Sequence to fold (493 residues):
Amino acid sequence: MSGIFVGILCPIIGVFLVLKNLSLIADGMAHFSFGGIALGIVLGISPTYMILLFSILGGLLINYVIRRTKLYGDTVIAILLSTGLAIGITIISLARGTNFNINAYLFGSLLAIDEKELMSIILLGIPAIILVIIFYRPLLYITFDEDSAKASGLPVESINILLVILSAVTIAITIKVAGILLTSALIVIPVATGIQISNSFKKTLLSSVVTGIISVILGLIISYYLNIAPGGAIVLVSVLIFLLSISGLFDQKGYYSKT
Amino acid sequence: MSDKILEVRGLYFSYDGENVLEDITFSLDRGEFLGIIGPNGSGKSTLLKLITGILKPDRGEIKLYTDRISYIPQKITSLSYNFPATVEEIVSLGILSKGMLKRISRKDYNLIEQALDKVGLLELKNKRLGELSGGQQQRVHIARAIVSNPELLVLDEPTTGIDIVNQTRFYELLGHLNREMGITVIIVSHDISTIAGEVTTMAYLDKKLHFIGKPKDFFKKILWPIELEDLLNR
Fold:
């Protein structure tokens, strides 16, 4: 159930991030939230909310620093990413002896999701999907070209912040399933497949979501029978689908169908 | 009394403490076709970004007497080359200017088709943008810009990388939009010869606004001394 949620949510946020050349921002935000998880565990606050808080914070920081400095996006993301990890590692080593399972957060674990957590996933995920539907066209416009969008009067900065918050929600949910290390894979790889096989934005979105859901379901089945980590299995399935999509199996030119 | 669409007064802008624009003052009437030329790094693109509100001025003021502005940035065709969207989807973005969250209605689809028809691309509306030639893509962006029925159309070096035949067609299209639809056009170009035939006002910008006026006066007053200076520097 929560897996399918992830399969839907990751690509619909991912498509905007990937096309904005921000594929790595999700990775940065997920790693940055490691600091939040460590802090949450030590302070006794639910890690889900700490992940949410830290990924929003990380995303906004990345967004802000890119705009205020002369640095490239990937440089800023690399700095934030390591900062979060360093905070996390420092806190964990200081709190040695506290008994908690950091592996569940690094690698993900579906079995660790209880009913309460499933509720919080639904409470966060459904509004996120609804917001994307409402803001679909402004999001598409700022993804296509920020300057044109701004000139025509769109509040570009606010929409960017909305995108960061939606990404943070997606990451907070996905970390449960795929873990910090592989969260960004689920946000990026199905979208890459979608872009490869579609000739319109709507089809890109749709095929990314379909790819996402197939990857999650197949990955979960495989992980169950082979008793391996679900995150790894899901991502490997999505990579396999991506490889199929670029193999030219669909069409020589790479476009799935020409209408 | 003339009907102004834009007034710029005492405008300054700097990057990293270095002035890119100094004391720019001019105004533009509705229905004009303004061509701005100047050397590389003369602040042309910056001036357009200030007029369209993408950047905020350091000093001075910009008064726009319309909120229906469309902007086509520099190098848009190379930026959007791989974007997975159809021609129709790109043009529909222009509808946004009318209301951010509004769904696209049947009436809007008619507007999109009309805009595509005007630029001669109606039959390509379901193609992926990247399948079109550079000249065709440029016209897609024009369709996106005019679909919201703008009063002011601002273009930054729109014909970079497009062959001369398509450039000429492109400027004819702009001239048509200017005369038939009454859209005020501001265009930045490094190529005087192609825009000179269509524009009603010409400006020469190099950090300061050295000239603004009729094209024929421009050639008399500005072009010759510049060429002479170029020769002397060689």
Residues 156-197 of chain A form the longest helix (42 residues). Chain A touches chain B through 28 residues (CB under 8 Å). Residues 2-258 of chain A form a domain with the ABC transporter involved in vitamin B12 uptake, BtuC fold (CATH 1.10.3470.10). DSSP finds eleven helices and no strands in chain A.
